[in-house]
Amino acid sequence: MNTHVTFPSDRILLPRGLVGRLAAIPTYQFDIGEPVLWGGERWEVIDRQTSMMGRQTYTVFKADDERPVREVAGFALSPILTA
């Protein structure tokens, strides 16, 4: 009797040593007090934390919002470019 096993179509059938690693995506680090864009609106960074995995989490503030203080992942923020 044969046992048939199905694999997901995205599974790579190579030994781990031969599978290439994904390069880390560089992210911009924001300073405290720096203005940033999030959701198309201007927010101000009031705190920054780094997780054990190296991911950045920011606390942002906007005075005229119904929830003025929020925790946001660093990859969701973008810098405000000044010319």
Helix and strand topology:
Elements: E1 35-38, E2 41-50, E3 56-61, E4 69-73, E5 78-79
Antiparallel strand pairs: 1-2, 1-5, 2-3, 3-4
Order of strands in the sheet with the most strands?
4-3-2-1-5
Q: H/E series, N to C?
A: EEEEE
Structural class: mainly beta
Shape: elongated
Span of the ends, CA to CA: 71 Å
Mean pLDDT level: 81
The major β-sheet equals: 5 strands, antiparallel
Strand content: 25-35%
Query: Regions with pLDDT < 50 over 5+ consecutive residues?
Result: none
Question: What is the gyration radius calculated from CA atoms?
Answer: 20 Å
Give the helix proportion (percent range): under 10%
Q: What is the number of E strands?
A: 5
Number of helices: 0
Task: Provide tags for this entry.
5-stranded antiparallel beta sheet; 83 residues; single chain; mainly beta
Short recap of the structure:
With 83 residues, this protein is mostly beta strands. Helices cover 0% and strands 33% of the residues.
Written description of the protein model:
This protein is an all-beta fold and 83 residues long. 0% of the residues lie in helices and 33% in strands. It contains no helices and five strands. The protein has strands at residues 35-38, 41-50, 56-61, 69-73, 78-79. Strands 4-3-2-1-5 form a five-stranded antiparallel β-sheet, with no helix packed on it. The chain starts with 34 loop residues before the first strand and ends with a strand. The model has no long low-confidence stretch (mean pLDDT 81).
